[in-house]
């Protein structure tokens, strides 16, 4: 029995005719008019109009603060992310993260409604903390806010104190909090605020003698493969470290036939002791601005940002780890480097001179640009919806350092509809972005390499690291084979349809 | 009271013991053992009330109901998520409301368009920026047939007057600009968002479309959001019956179709929860009767075809019979293939809209039994329609929490669970076969004669995937 689902069913003649009949009621524009406008959107004239807009975002590549906050909270042991505000937000965060990771994502809402809008959300917070604690037995409840709670001005600190004073939750239950208005910044800001909130809460009064460890803060990094890779590499280097917000087991837990609400995360004791580390290294800059500034001013020891994406960035990462810990970079890692460079050299003819468009979060873009230029690729359009002026400056400086960066333009605050105009007016060979960039692939025909967040329409990509030398190999693999697939598609009816490349 | 009911009640009480007292009392009213006869007074659940804070409700918000469900699928209107960036981001092309058209040119369904509120909008108000935004959209998308302004939480809290902006701009643009006050804090769930969306269709679009001629067979298909092409599969059947579907709400809908449904002779409503309001309005104002139907699974399809036909002349009635005769062998073949693989399997459902009751018949056609069912945002009228569909002692859940779903699963041991994305992966971890019954798990259609084979195939692959057997290693 041949069963046709939507993929084939609606190509059948009966349906094609149905769609034609339906048009009678749709008041459609004449096909020529649609065609004319479609062509017009590909022009420079349209691009200028498009770039003149100031008040509307069309297909932006950013999410809101509390998404980053709940993600950050999830990576701590036994921690329940808890969101003060309207309940739909939490439903959305959970759905969004589950769609990316294909994993369960628990988070609590205080389900604020109209009465809370009038009287404030205190009662919601009190009942919410009590219920969440009784039902889900967390070791820590990590509180952030939706825009509703922010607009009405809920005082998290006072509310949490009341909950403890009333004995609704134990006095010693850690309940860090962060104000995370969604009308400020983006998901990376929320990650930053929550990380700062958690670290300042769990390390309070814990300052003691140095523990000889280093802290690693991955930032808003949605590659579980990166976390595992980092742990593997630091283990090889024999470095004692604490990953601050370790989501790897939370968003990539083994199937054992049992659902665990808290399948992993940074042990709370380690998090508390992080204040005594020899150094703190953030792997992203723009998602850790406030956190790192807090650590620099409050914790004392070294705090630096190192993004191990690409060969030279990874070199620098290991050099710095080696400098801080006094441990040499082992041969095993040097061999990995050699293999990554070998892969790049083998594949370089298919990437050299290729023009790229990139869209994503600021730190990811900096890493990708650096890597692409190392391979001889040319970043042309760099679109960063949640990038600011500082990011723009840093990205432009990076481009200016390389002969391959001379054609690049950085577009902070722009979205994927701007990118559409860029791709039509100044075409490129490859596009790197998240799953929503597939609309650009469809409209402009630019081959798409999926790197970023969210990745909804391809499975398991987030399990493969993009950091370290292994990450280099993975990115070479995705990029060069996308180029080769495209070459096959284009040459299938020509003599260039080569088997050996 | 029967033993089955008593046993289920006992189980519910055990589950409730996990709650603090106040919440236990509140939640007790939302869980019941089913009594199809309606005689047992304690067997009815309370519904459509606020979720308790902190319990991990599955529910969404009014914005999700208005933007995600009702207005979002309207294809040639630009749907603006008015407020901060998140709401539109998370609901971006998540419901798979298929449509035909050139996206970004004459249709806008798979786009995420937002005013992206910043702090200054909160402090100074967002009305001016909204007006500017609408003008920019008109420049860039000249073929739009309307714009919807879907308010997010802050808009209602800071006292913006989006209605005034909409009115002013609509007069300039010459097409409907629809202000939808669906801030997420309004109401208790998605449900109020549906109602608000219905009201705005009534106030801003209904009755303003154009249709040249009428026939005695004109119907409107209401409350079908064309998930995975559902509405197309349904429309195909209605047309084969000899009916003329003049409006499809709102899956693959055009603004014009929203404007002409009042010309239909009969409104056919699939998702009662989300669009009964507008049907009642059209009944009161235009005298159009409406009828609920169910196109999931052959048993309900046959009944529904006959029910719909009963409103028309003999030609239509005969056509309905002819269709049943024509498709029955196909449906029987599907059942013959899949029923032996699914016989007696127990299903637990926790969904929204129409599915907790409408899909029961389709499962039963495959020999499966729905042992528990519940609604995220149902009302009493939904539950009254559900009790007779389910067996005595089945579990009825309203606004269930993660905790309850997990506990009921442990006790009922269903062979599969149908619920949403937030539930999906915890069931995968539990080793319980699971199907997303909001999005059809990216499959579909499930409606109609074309949909049932897909439904059967999908339930089979869910229950009988060999992957489930790998979880526990055989030693």
Structural features, described:
The complex is a heterodimer of chains A (501) and B (475). Chain A is α/β, with parallel strands linked by helices and 501 residues long. Helices cover 48% and strands 11% of the residues of chain A. Chain A has 21 helices and 13 strands. In chain A, helix 4 runs antiparallel to helix 19, helix 5 packs across helix 11 and helix 17 packs parallel to helix 18. The two termini of chain A are 41 Å apart. With 475 residues, chain B is of the alpha/beta class. In chain B, the strands form 3 sheets. Chain B has a 6-stranded mixed beta sheet with strand order 1-12-11-10-13-14, with helices on both faces. A 4-stranded parallel beta sheet of chain B has the order 3-2-4-5, with helices on both faces. A 4-stranded parallel beta sheet of chain B has the order 7-6-8-9, sandwiched between helices. In chain B, helix 17 links the parallel strand 11 and strand 12. Chain B is globular, with a radius of gyration of 23 Å. At the A-B interface, helix 2, helix 3, helix 4, strand 1 and helix 6 of A face helix 3, helix 4, strand 3, helix 5 and helix 6 of B. Strand 1 of chain A pairs antiparallel with strand 3 of chain B, so a sheet runs across the interface.
Task: Map the helices and strands.
The complex is a heterodimer of chains A (501) and B (475).
Chain A: H1 6-9, H2 13-22, H3 31-40, H4 44-52, E1 57-58, H5 65-74, E2 79-84, H6 87-101, E3 108-109, H7 114-119, H8 122-136, E4 140-145, H9 147-152, H10 156-165, H11 187-202, E5 214-217, H12 224-236, E6 241-243, H13 268-273, E7 279-282, H14 289-298, E8 302-305, H15 311-325, H16 331-351, E9 355-359, H17 362-374, E10 378-384, H18 389-400, E11 409-412, H19 416-425, E12 430-433, H20 438-444, E13 448-450, H21 468-491
Parallel strand pairs in A: 2-3, 2-4, 5-6, 5-7, 7-8, 9-10, 9-12, 10-11, 12-13
Helix pairs in contact in A: 4-19, 5-11, 8-10, 11-14, 16-21, 17-18
Chain B: H1 3-16, H2 21-28, E1 31-33, H3 62-71, E2 77-82, H4 86-90, E3 113-114, H5 119-124, H6 127-140, E4 146-151, H7 153-157, H8 162-173, E5 177-180, H9 190-204, E6 218-224, H10 230-240, E7 244-250, H11 255-260, E8 266-269, H12 272-286, E9 290-292, H13 298-309, H14 314-342, E10 346-351, H15 355-358, H16 360-365, E11 369-375, H17 380-386, E12 395-398, H18 402-412, E13 416-419, H19 421-430, E14 434-436, H20 448-463
Helix pairs in contact in B: 1-18, 3-9, 6-8, 9-12, 10-20, 13-14, 14-20
């Amino acid at each position: 029995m041949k069963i046709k689902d939507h993929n084939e069913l609606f190509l059948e003649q009966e349906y094609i005719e149905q769609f034609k009949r339906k048009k009678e009621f749709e008041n459609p524009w004449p096909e020529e008019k649609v065609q004319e406008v479609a062509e017009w959107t590909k022009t420079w004239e349209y691009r200028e109009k498009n770039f003149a807009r100031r008040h509307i975002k069309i297909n932006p590549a950013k999410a809101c603060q509390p998404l980053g906050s709940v993600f950050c909270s999830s990576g701590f042991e036994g921690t329940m992310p808890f969101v003060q505000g309207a309940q739909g937000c939490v439903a959305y965060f959970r759905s969004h993260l589950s769609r990316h990771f294909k994993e369960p994502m628990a988070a609590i809402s205080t389900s604020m409604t109209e009465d809370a809008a009038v009287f404030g959300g205190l009662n919601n917070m009190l009942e919410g903390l009590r219920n969440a604690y009784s039902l889900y037995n967390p070791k820590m409840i990590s509180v952030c806010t939706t825009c509703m709670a922010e607009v009405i001005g809920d005082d998290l600190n006072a509310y949490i104190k009341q909950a403890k004073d009333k004995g609704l939750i134990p006095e010693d239950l850690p309940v860090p909090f962060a104000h995370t208005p969604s009308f400020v910044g983006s998901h990376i800001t929320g990650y930053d605020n929550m990380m700062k909130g958690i670290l300042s809460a769990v390390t309070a009064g814990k300052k003691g003698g140095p523990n000889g460890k280093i802290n690693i803060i991955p930032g808003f990094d949605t590659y579980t493969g990166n976390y595992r890779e980092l742990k593997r590499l630091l283990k090889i280097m024999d470095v004692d470290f604490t990953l601050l917000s370790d989501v790897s087991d939370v968003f990539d837990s083994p199937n054992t036939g049992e659902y665990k609400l808290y399948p992993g995360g940074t042990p709370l004791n380690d998090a508390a002791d992080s204040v005594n580390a020899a150094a703190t290294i953030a792997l992203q800059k723009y998602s850790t601005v406030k956190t790192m500034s807090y650590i620099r001013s409050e914790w004392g020891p070294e705090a630096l940002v190192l993004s191990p994406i690409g060969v030279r960035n990874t070199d620098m990462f290991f050099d710095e780890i080696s400098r801080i810990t006094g441990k040499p970079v082992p041969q095993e890692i040097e061999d990995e480097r050699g293999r990554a460079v070998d892969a790049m050299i083998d594949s370089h003819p298919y990437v050299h001179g290729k023009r790229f468009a990139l869209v994503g979060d600021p730190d990811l873009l900096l890493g990708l640009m650096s890597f692409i230029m190392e391979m001889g690729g040319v970043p042309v359009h760099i679109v960063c919806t949640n990038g600011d002026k500082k990011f723009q400056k840093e990205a432009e400086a990076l481009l200016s350092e390389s002969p391959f960066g001379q054609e690049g333009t950085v577009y902070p605050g722009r979205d994927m509809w701007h990118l559409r105009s860029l791709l039509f007016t100044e075409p490129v060979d490859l596009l790197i972005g998240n799953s929503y960039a597939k609309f650009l692939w469809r409209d402009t025909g630019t081959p798409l390499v999926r790197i970023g967040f969210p990745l909804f329409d391809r499975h398991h990509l987030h399990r493969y690291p993009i950091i370290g030398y292994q990450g280099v190999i993975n990115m070479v693999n995705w990029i060069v084979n996308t180029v080769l697939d495209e070459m096959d598609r284009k040459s299938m009816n020509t003599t260039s349809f080569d088997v050996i490349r | 009271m029967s033993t089955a009911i008593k046993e289920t009640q006992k189980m519910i009480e055990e589950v409730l013991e996990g709650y603090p007292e106040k919440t236990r009392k509140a939640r007790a009213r939302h869980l019941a053992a089913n009594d199809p006869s309606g005689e047992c007074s304690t067997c009815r659940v309370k519904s459509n009330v606020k979720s308790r804070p902190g319990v991990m409700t599955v529910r969404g918000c009014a914005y999700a109901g208005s933007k995600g469900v009702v207005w979002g699928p309207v294809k040639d209107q630009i749907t603006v998520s008015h407020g901060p960036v998140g709401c539109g981001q998370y609901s971006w092309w998540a419901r798979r409301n298929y449509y035909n058209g050139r996206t970004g040119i004459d249709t806008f369904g798979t786009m995420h368009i937002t005013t992206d509120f910043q702090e200054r909008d909160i402090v100074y108000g967002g009305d001016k920026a909204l007006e500017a935004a609408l003008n920019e959209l008109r420049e860039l998308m000249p073929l739009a047939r309307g714009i919807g302004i879907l308010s997010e939480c802050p808009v209602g809290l800071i006292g913006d007057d989006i209605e005034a902006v909409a009115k002013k701009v609509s007069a300039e643009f010459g097409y409907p600009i629809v202000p939808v006050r669906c801030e997420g804090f309004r109401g208790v769930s998605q449900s109020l968002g549906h109602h608000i969306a219905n009201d705005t269709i009534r106030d801003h679009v209904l009755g303003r479309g154009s249709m040249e001629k009428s026939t005695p067979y004109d119907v409107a298909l209401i409350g079908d959001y064309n998930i995975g092409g559902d509405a197309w599969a349904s429309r195909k059947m209605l047309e084969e019956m000899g009916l003329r579907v003049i409006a499809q709400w709102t899956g693959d809908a055009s603004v014009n179709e929203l404007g002409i449904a009042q010309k239909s002779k009969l409104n056919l409503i699939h998702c009662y929860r989300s669009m009964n309001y507008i049907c009642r309005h059209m009944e009161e104002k235009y005298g159009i009767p409406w009828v609920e139907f169910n196109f999931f699974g052959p048993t309900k399809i046959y009944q529904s075809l006959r029910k719909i036909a009963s409103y028309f002349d003999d030609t239509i009635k005969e056509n309905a019979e002819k269709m049943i005769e024509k498709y029955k062998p196909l449906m029987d073949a599907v059942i013959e293939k899949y029923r032996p693989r699914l016989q007696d399997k127990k299903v637990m459902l926790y969904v929204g809209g129409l599915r907790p009751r409408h899909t029961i018949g389709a499962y039963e056609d495959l020999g499966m039994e729905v042992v528990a069912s519940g609604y995220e945002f149902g009302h009493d009228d939904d539950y009254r329609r559900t009790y007779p569909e389910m067996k005595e002692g089945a579990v009825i859940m309203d606004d269930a929490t993660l905790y309850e779903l997990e506990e009921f699963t442990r006790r009922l041991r269903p062979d599969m669970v149908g619920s949403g994305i937030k539930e999906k992966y915890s069931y995968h971890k539990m080793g319980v076969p699971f199907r997303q019954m909001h999005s059809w798990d990216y499959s579909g259609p499930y409606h109609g004669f074309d949909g049932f084979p897909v439904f059967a195939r999908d339930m089979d692959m869910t229950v009988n995937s060999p992957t489930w057997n790998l979880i526990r290693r055989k030693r």
